[in-house]
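Entry for the shared binder. Reason: the reviewer on the internal report wants the predicted structure included alongside the sequence.
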Amino acid sequence: MSAKESEQTKPAKRSPMPILSDTGQAAWDAYATALRITTDTSPVTVRNYLSDLRQFIAWAEAEWTVGQDATVSFTPTCLTPPLLTRYRSTLQHTRRLTPASINRALVSLKRYSAWLLAECVLSRDPVAPVKLIPETARAPRHLDDTEEEALLAAVTAHGSTRDQTLITLMLHTGLRAREVCALRRRDVTVGKRSGILRVYGKRNKYREVPLNATARAVLAPHLAAISDTDAPVFPSHKTGEPLTARGLGYLIAKYAALARIPDLSPHDLRHRFGYRMASHVPLHRLAQIMGHDSLDTTMRYIHGTARDLQNEVEKIAWE
């Protein structure tokens, strides 16, 4: 792999986290401890919640300190609807973030406020009156046929059997990153004409995902080498433990770079499955397979992508 290709496989570095006052840091630490101990939320989501809260606390302390001789520290009881509304306005008009980014920050603060209420730190929810920014529904990224072929060619030429099986399975089952990483040998049944994956998805919700002929064909020889029913289907080559979602992200990025596909994530393989299935099966069945709680989520796969819409308007061009 060239130095350029190697560099492309590295995920973007995170921005340095802002420094908080001692009081603000203590408030952040208390929430961080609670999230890491009591929640079954994914590590990535926890990291996002904490990053969003830290950014908010830093902003609030900076705002309060303007014109003051000393730092004005953040405490949870300082949360008020006007403060949160002003923060939303800053994100929208000063920082010019997208509606999705603004809403993620607000949802993180709503989650924090709910925890403060449960801990009896607050008696009223200050975030409840603060509305999210309306978003225009956008279709998820659509990995096209050429890109899928290039990805499979890259992993076939350069990848291990594990990696080839993993990517093919994701393209044909639509599993989330955490779900595919958590698979154990006992969770997979493969027969000549059928097969299933037993999956625990978001909020530990159980579902069974059917395996088509392609998935069964690629899984069968891979599973034959796994004798322990408790062994991970996709172990880390370094530790033997289940591959992590972060490790899966690196893996997908590596083969995407070789295939010259920019910014490809594991979730894009899930979207590829969703788009292909939506043109063949009723949405309620697709929702069941993908583990969606609402058909509104599944509806994304019948919305036109930007490329689809561009192709449609070109049909009436005068050129």
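Summary line for the report: Residues 126 and 201 are 31 Å apart (CA to CA).
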